[in-house]
Design a protein that fits this description.
The structure holds two protein chains of two kinds.
Chain A lengths: L1 E11 L5 E11 L3 E5 L6 H8 L7 E6 L2 E2 L8 H5 L2 E5 L10 H11 L4 H14 L15 H13 L5 E5 L7 H18 L2 E6 L2 H7 L1 E7 L2 E9 L4
Helix pairs in contact in A: 3-4, 3-5, 4-5, 5-6
Chain B lengths: L1 H19 L1 H38 L2 E5 L5 H13 L3 E7 L1 H11 L1 H7 L12 E6 L5 H9 L4 E5 L4 H41 L1 H9 L4 H19 L1 H17 L3 E2 L4 E2 L3 H31 L3
Helix pairs in contact in B: 1-2, 1-9, 2-7, 2-9, 2-10, 2-11, 4-5, 7-9, 7-11, 9-11, 10-11
The chains are: A alpha/beta, B alpha+beta.
Bound molecules: adenosine-5'-diphosphate (ADP) and magnesium ion.
Chain lengths: 229, 299
């Protein structure tokens, strides 16, 4: 059974721009997928529809059994608890320590202190930041901040991790480190990973499943491949 | 369990937020304080007025004087008619000789004068004293009684209670108006306070939403914050109620001006008023924060 099913999805923004045209694709549990394409090709729009930040104008999106297009605002949190989400700009809370930033997820869903502690330490271990739990975000490098953001996204053990240009602000070496962390999560936890990127080098090196978008249309969906235009 | 954990967290966050934006919170708290002081004073006055008008009303009696030539049969007829009136609670009959005797006992002067009267000379009148069920209809009832044959004059504490009640009713209306106006201002201030808290925590809210916090979890701390403002705002009014009313009560020894106007005993009265004031404060705070959340926390 496919974890994510997208069927005949169109997305037109209020200003009239159509960002996605008739998109149909399925993603299997445990995959590692690169969503690639030039700037403005609709990668972010696709990701946003998966976590119900944007609603499709038409079509059907099923994520982990949840009909996302029909999901009511008050129920969105149920979807979000099955997902982890990572952005280019990290989106950490500057007044909280590394530990507190990661614990923020657990507190937001009402976990106990003990459970929070256990899972936060495990997540920070996984991203290799256990030594810096008491630091504040501005005391960390960009790569480290992104790893905190990843820890925050996976701390509740979601089935899917969505990443929108997670390496966009990082140099090639740091970028590679981040992708290695994601691969580790994909392997050890079985988390399905969907990463939007336009970083050719990474995509070519990793040779993972690719979804290629161009001007809002699906051009290619390969089990394994490098970056193509 | 989880619910209480979240609630505890909301309350903690709300207190933190109140102190973090203290200067802003202070404006709301002061406004609630002033409002609640006025509310408290009106409640105290209203309850006291109600209490002593009720006492006075209990003493209100219609005195029915019968004509001198009323026969015993006619007296019985009148008694029957009075008893059948819907607003009559009870009545007692006193013949003029009985009244004479009673008055003679009361003072020697009366005794001296009255001892010379025989039944013929006795200028007093046979009377019925009527207690009514509904004091507000007392003048209607008195008028009705006045129309009965052989009944000469009807007396009751005409006007006095009516005037008192209408004076206090006017005062009450004014204080209601003031309280409502103040509550509106307070709610407006609370909305603004909570609005700024919401704006200052936009980032936090969006991340909470992202990582799967329910709407309830996101909204509750802000609603609780309004309630905390209300709670803080009711502290000074409650102190004023408790210490002020006891001081007032002791100063006047429980009476105002005359023995007719007695004050309500402080206990448990002050606890009740404090409770009301606290509840109003918290509810007003909640109304303010709930409307701010509805208006500015779009999730
Ligand atoms: N919120 C929005 N409102 C209107 N148009 C948007 C919005 N977001 C994106 N777009 C448009 O949709 C298209 C796809 O954008 P996006 O999904 O961000 O692409 P990518 O992430 O691949 O660069 C672009 O033409 C962009 O201008
Ligand atoms: Mg993008």
């Amino acid at each position: 059974m496919d974890l994510i099913r997208v069927k005949n999805v169109n997305k037109q923004y209020k200003n009239g721009v159509t960002a996605i045209y008739d998109l149909t694709l399925n993603i299997k549990k445990g995959s590692f997928v690169f969503v690639i394409g030039g700037s403005g090709s609709g990668k972010s729009t696709f990701i946003k529809m998966l976590y119900r930040e944007e609603k499709p104008t038409s079509g059907e999106i099923i994520v982990g059994g949840i009909n996302v297009a029909k999901l009511r605002n008050s129920k969105v949190y149920k979807l979000r608890r099955k997902l982890g989400i990572v952005f280019q700009d990290y989106r950490l809370l500057p007044k909280l320590t590394v530990y507190e930033n990661v614990a923020f997820t657990m507190e937001s869903i009402g976990a106990t202190k003990a459970e929070t502690r256990k899972k936060v330490l495990k997540a920070l271990e996984l991203v290799g930041l256990k030594a810096k739990i008491h630091n504040y975000p501005d005391q960390l490098s960009g790569g480290e901040q992104q790893r905190v953001a990843i820890a925050r996204a996976i701390v509740n053990e979601p089935r899917i991790l969505l990443c929108d240009e997670p390496t966009g602000n990082l140099d090639p070496d740091r970028s590679m480190e981040i992708v290695k962390v994601l691969e580790e999560i994909n392997k050890t936890c079985g988390t399905t990973i969907i990463m939007a990127t336009h970083d050719k080098e990474i995509v070519n090196k990793m040779q993972k499943e690719i979804v290629l978008l161009k001007d809002g249309r699906l051009i290619k969906h390969l089990e394994k491949g490098g970056y193509e235009e | 369990m989880k619910f209480f954990r979240m609630l505890r967290r909301s309350i903690r966050d709300a207190f933190k937020s109140v102190f973090r934006n203290f200067s802003l919170s202070l404006a709301s708290i002061s406004c609630i304080t002033i409002t609640l002081i006025i509310v408290a004073i009106s409640i105290i006055v209203t309850f006291n007025v109600q209490s002593f008008t009720r006492e006075m009303e209990k003493d209100l009696t219609i005195v029915v004087f019968l004509d001198n030539d009323t026969t015993e049969e006619e007296v019985n007829n009148i008694r029957e008619r009075l008893e059948n009136m819907t607003n009559v609670e009870s009545l007692t009959y006193q013949s003029k000789s009985a009244i004479k005797e009673e008055m003679s006992k009361e003072s020697d002067v009366f005794n001296e004068v009255m001892s010379t009267w025989d039944d013929e000379d006795n200028p007093l009148k046979d009377t019925f004293q009527v207690k009514v069920k509904d004091v507000e209809k007392i003048s209607d009832t008195a008028k009705k009684i006045g129309r009965i044959d052989k009944v000469s004059t009807v007396r009751y504490g005409e006007g006095m209670v009516d005037n008192l009640i209408s004076a206090f009713e006017a005062a009450q209306k004014i204080s209601y108006g003031m309280v409502i106006a103040l509550i509106l201002v307070t709610v407006f201030l609370i909305i603004n306070t909570i609005k700024l808290t919401i704006f200052s925590r936009k980032r936090e809210i969006s991340i909470m939403r992202l990582v799967g916090a329910s709407n309830f979890t996101i909204k509750t701390p802000f609603i609780v914050e309004g309630m905390v403002l209300g709670l803080f705002g009711s502290i000074i009014p409650i102190l004023i109620i408790c210490f002020g009313y006891i001081a007032l009560y002791n100063h006047f020894d429980g009476y105002l001006y005359s023995r007719m106007i007695t004050l309500i005993e402080p206990e448990p009265f002050i606890y009740m008023v404090s409770g009301i004031v606290l509840v109003i404060g918290i509810i007003v705070g909640m109304i303010g924060s709930a409307s701010a959340v509805r208006k500015y926390l779009k999730i």
